[in-house]
């Protein structure tokens, strides 16, 4: 496998506190040609470890037209873009979450909304130094971009490990954007049904689209068919996947 043609390959990286993972996506073949996970050994400071590991990975030193940093923020908020002022991002974000001194705010505009999320400054700047063309994406933003909104009610669900991310859109307006930590399948089902009940989501004129960990999706679909009609497991190449153990997200059409 060669990756010298930067118009053919895109690189996706996920950074986490227990290491990082990356995958190489062949646009022409619509396939993943390389995926790798690098675990943090805790024998040195994470920042120093990350700096060395990024430099050692030969694939990462090549040039690509498209490079995505994909991460799942612990703190995020969705704001109508009409309220966004660049100089007041911290003020807006602080209405929902406190911002630590070690964190910076990343903003992503999707349609009429802007996603504000917190990311650790040192780690982001280090990765940005290696990849100047880096494009940051978060789980909620990807879901907003990939969601089919052809019906009145559209529910997008991403499952990455023990965390569920859900976005509910009615008539092109976001009704809910949230995440939930779960331990069992019953926890997962309860949270989703609780959400449907509180938002009065009808059985008809609603679409539930499932992305992410495919170990959970068939089970979840089977349970949800008792309550809803239109439930779809979305193909990884069309949206969100978790092929790499750390839950890397692939943005195939970036």
UniProtKB/TrEMBL annotation:
Pfam families recorded: DUF3822
Domain of life: Bacteria
Alphabetized InterPro entries for the sequence: DUF3822
Protein known as: Uncharacterized protein DUF3822
């Amino acid at each position: 496998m060669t990756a010298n043609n930067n118009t053919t390959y895109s690189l996706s990286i996920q950074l986490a506190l227990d290491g990082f993972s990356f995958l190489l996506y062949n646009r022409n073949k619509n396939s993943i040609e390389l995926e790798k996970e690098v675990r943090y050994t805790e024998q040195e400071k994470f920042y120093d470890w990350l700096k060395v590991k990024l430099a050692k990975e030969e694939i990462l030193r090549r040039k690509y037209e498209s490079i995505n940093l994909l991460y799942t923020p612990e703190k995020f908020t969705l704001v109508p873009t009409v309220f966004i002022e660049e100089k007041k991002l911290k003020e807006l974000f602080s209405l929902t979450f406190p911002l630590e001194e070690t964190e910076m705010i990343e903003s992503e505009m999707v349609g009429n909304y802007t996603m504000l999320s917190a990311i650790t400054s040192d780690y982001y700047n280090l990765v940005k130094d290696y990849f100047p063309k880096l494009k940051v994406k978060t789980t909620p933003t990807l879901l907003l971009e990939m969601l089919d909104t052809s019906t009145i009610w559209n529910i997008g669900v991403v499952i990455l490990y023990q965390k569920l991310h859900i976005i509910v859109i009615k008539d092109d307006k976001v009704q809910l954007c949230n995440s939930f930590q779960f331990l069992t399948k019953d926890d997962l089902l309860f949270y989703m049904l609780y959400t449907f009940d509180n938002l009065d989501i009808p059985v008809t004129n609603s679409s539930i689209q499932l992305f992410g960990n495919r170990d959970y999706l068939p089970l979840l679909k089977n349970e949800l068919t008792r309550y809803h009609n239109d439930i779809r497991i979305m193909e990884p190449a069309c949206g969100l996947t978790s092929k790499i153990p750390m839950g890397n997200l692939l943005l195939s059409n970036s």
